[in-house]
Amino acid sequence: MRYTPDRGWHDAKIGPRTGLDMHPATKTLHYAIEIFEGLKAYRLPDGGATLFRPDANARRFQSSAERLAMAPLPEQLFVESVRALVRADRDWIPSAEGASLYIRPFMFGVDADLVPDPASEYLYCVLANPVASYFKSGDKAVTLWVSDTYTRAAPGGTGAVKCGGNYAAALVAQAEGKRQGCDQVVFLDAVERRWVEELGGMNVFFVFEDGSLQTPPLTGTILPGITRDSLITLARGMGLTVREERYGIDEWQADARSGRLVEAFACGTAAVVTSIGEVKGREQAFTIGDGGPGPVAARLKSALTDIQFGRAPDPHGWLDRLF
Ligand code: PMP
């Protein structure tokens, strides 16, 4: 679908993937005027299919567009475009355990000039791909690398929205983590280099021995994850206390050593809920619990995926059934 100031959004079409013909001066290639979303369609036990909270993705897409001075895409149009593609691709929604159809809506400025001002014309596309589990390690706990050299988002920056530039800037840290034998990077805040913010593509939760949970607050430098929000609701529904409060990397290390912290896990649309077993990159690596997957993460993951795959009731009205 295209946007021009005179016609608004127009020319919506669904078809096989084709190449895009772009002028070398296309603004986005130079100034990263690009935003995206990630969500999934799930196969239901009766053969139907559902989306999970696409309205939340539509709202986040809208706030990403605002932050990058891009044209707004009405939330209803976003949701309708995703529904239409999934219906067209219905045979591609996997039914294997844990598998789903990953959906990637994205939008970028297409004006062909080298002036670094907001774009006026846009292309909005949606891709869909069947996916299995995110981590090759399956349900094993992952190892994190604490990036001391790089930060992901500074106050006033774009950390709270989903734009391609955030990910480009994080790649070097991911590569550093991989070289150190870690699965993912955990980023600290850019000001004090102390507060745990999030992973490259996931929010993070901590579980304490008193059974309470904590997750970093949405201070403007982390992405407001839809999985994060859903898990807070589910955990509170189980009677667990959830604090949205800052947590320092040194406290994390000390609490893991003393046993006050019993579990930590990461969450996101792609990875769902994944336990964190070990953290490296400080002077000394530290292990969380016994280094394996934790019971609270497992319980929350089941609660979430049971709703997503239609195995449990949907008391919060999160499912958007397509057929
Ligand atoms: N943080 C970052 C940086 C991400 O890219 C993602 C994935 N969208 C998340 C957190 C988790 O967000 P969600 O639960 O909406 O997938």
From TrEMBL:
<dbReference type="InterPro" id="IPR033939">
    <property type="entry name" value="BCAT_family"/>
</dbReference>
<keyword id="KW-0028">Amino-acid biosynthesis</keyword>
<dbReference type="Pfam" id="PF01063">
    <property type="entry name" value="Aminotran_4"/>
</dbReference>
<dbReference type="InterPro" id="IPR005786">
    <property type="entry name" value="B_amino_transII"/>
</dbReference>
<comment type="function">
    <text>Acts on leucine, isoleucine and valine.</text>
</comment>
<dbReference type="InterPro" id="IPR036038">
    <property type="entry name" value="Aminotransferase-like"/>
</dbReference>
<dbReference type="GO" id="GO:0009097">
    <property type="term" value="P:isoleucine biosynthetic process"/>
</dbReference>
<dbReference type="InterPro" id="IPR018300">
    <property type="entry name" value="Aminotrans_IV_CS"/>
</dbReference>
<feature type="modified residue" description="N6-(pyridoxal phosphate)lysine">
    <location>
        <position position="162"/>
    </location>
</feature>
<dbReference type="GO" id="GO:0004084">
    <property type="term" value="F:branched-chain-amino-acid transaminase activity"/>
</dbReference>
<dbReference type="GO" id="GO:0009099">
    <property type="term" value="P:L-valine biosynthetic process"/>
</dbReference>
<keyword id="KW-0808">Transferase</keyword>
<dbReference type="GO" id="GO:0009098">
    <property type="term" value="P:L-leucine biosynthetic process"/>
</dbReference>
<dbReference type="InterPro" id="IPR043132">
    <property type="entry name" value="BCAT-like_C"/>
</dbReference>
<comment type="pathway">
    <text>Amino-acid biosynthesis; L-isoleucine biosynthesis; L-isoleucine from 2-oxobutanoate: step 4/4.</text>
</comment>
<protein>
    <recommendedName>
        <fullName>Branched-chain-amino-acid aminotransferase</fullName>
        <ecNumber>2.6.1.42</ecNumber>
    </recommendedName>
</protein>
<keyword id="KW-0032">Aminotransferase</keyword>
<comment type="pathway">
    <text>Amino-acid biosynthesis; L-leucine biosynthesis; L-leucine from 3-methyl-2-oxobutanoate: step 4/4.</text>
</comment>
<dbReference type="InterPro" id="IPR001544">
    <property type="entry name" value="Aminotrans_IV"/>
</dbReference>
<keyword id="KW-0663">Pyridoxal phosphate</keyword>
<keyword id="KW-0100">Branched-chain amino acid biosynthesis</keyword>
<comment type="similarity">
    <text>Belongs to the class-IV pyridoxal-phosphate-dependent aminotransferase family.</text>
</comment>
<dbReference type="InterPro" id="IPR043131">
    <property type="entry name" value="BCAT-like_N"/>
</dbReference>
